Every structure is written in structure tokens, then in C-alpha cells.
Amino acid sequence: MAEIPTNSFLEWHSGAMSQRHALRLGCFSHALLPTDSKLREIVGQEIIAELLELAFHGRRTMERYDNKQLTIANDLFWPASQVDKTDHNLFDAFGTIIHAMAIAINWERPEEGDVNKGGANPYKNVGRDGDFAGSVTIKSDNKEVEKLPIGAIVAAYTHFLNQVNANEGASDD
Questions:
Q1: Which of 55, 57, 86, 120 could form an SS bridge with 97, CB 3.0 to 4.6 Å?
Q2: Higher pLDDT among residues 41 and 117, named by residue
Q3: Within 13 Å and on the Cβ side, how many CA atoms surround 82?
Q4: Considering only CA atoms, which of 148, 151, 147 is closest in space to residue 132?
Q5: Are 112 and 64 in contact (CB under 8 A)?
């Protein structure tokens, strides 16, 4: 991701903040962690904080660029294995996150790879399996419960930022 072009301080600030939070969220949520409840609690709090910050600054950036049409798709790198519907509107998903009354993280076990047909556990720690935060379940203030894929949100927003950067670069010529 490249730095967002500076047209005004507010535009730059929201774009830069959302970019930072998207990067942190992607790293926190898809790191393989041992199944240690205290560690999960600490990392989970960081994930929720980053998700809220991304939703706030990301939604503001999408408003400033008048681009609210992007959907959260099933990203090839970060598939949403616990989420059935992945065609959520990103702008609306950010709204759901901002108005959340409760956010719960859904921890997932990575699929065991087909390493020479023998399979492999990517996290080899005797007695403790590795999990990652794949999605969140959100209860919003209008009583709806929705499950959203964290990695797909990060991928969709990153795609949006790349589009913004490409369009800004084309207008400078």
C-alpha cells in the first residue's frame, strides 16, 4: 500500500489512520496463536480496538471519496471459512461495526495443508494447537447479529485504498 495523497489534512488523516489500522488488524487477526485463553483475551482486545478504528476512519475515507459501493468478497488469501455470506457492502459493514453493542471473535484452526499428501499442522507446539481470529460476530444497536470475516474486510479496504491511490496518481499527470 502506498501513502494516500494529501489533498487536505482531514482527508490525509483518516486515510492514513485507516491504512495503519487495516495493516495492524490483518497482522493481529491472522497470526497463529497457541490456544492460551489469556493470550487470546489480550490479542482479542487489540483486534476489536483495531476493527473499531478501521471502521471509523475507513468509513470516513470512503465518504470523502464518495465510494460506498465496494463489497466484501471471499478473498483468496484470507478466505472467510466461518462466514456463509461474503457479499456484504463494506461501507455498511463499517456502520455495523461502529454501532456495535457487542463484538465476539470467532477463533479458527487453520486447515492442515496437503504437504506431500501427508498433511501438516502449521503450528507445531506439543499440547497446544494454533488458532487465528478469522471472523467476528457483531450485535448492533438495532438488535441484528452479523458475522463478518476479518481478513476479507482488510483485503476489501486495502483494495479500496489501492484504487484511491491509482486514481490520484492518474490525475496528477
A1: 55
A2: 41
A3: 19
A4: 151
A5: no
Cβ–Cβ under 8 Å, residues 111 and 132: no
What nine digits make up the cell of 75? 478473498
Convert 105-148 into a string of H (helix), E (strand) and C (coil): EEEECCCCECCCCCCECCCCCCCCCEEEEEEEEEEECCCCEEEE
Scan for cell 487470546, then name that residue. 40
Cell numbers linked to 56: 471509523
Distance CA 133, CA 135 (A): 6
* Side chain identity, residue 45: Q
C-alpha cell at 111: 486447515
Per the structure block, which three cell numbers stand in for 5?
495523497
Q: What is the pLDDT of residues 55-111, one digit of tens each?
A: 999 999 999 888 888 888 766 666 555 566 667 899 999 999 999 999 999 988 776
Start-to-end CA distance of the chain, whole Å, equals 20
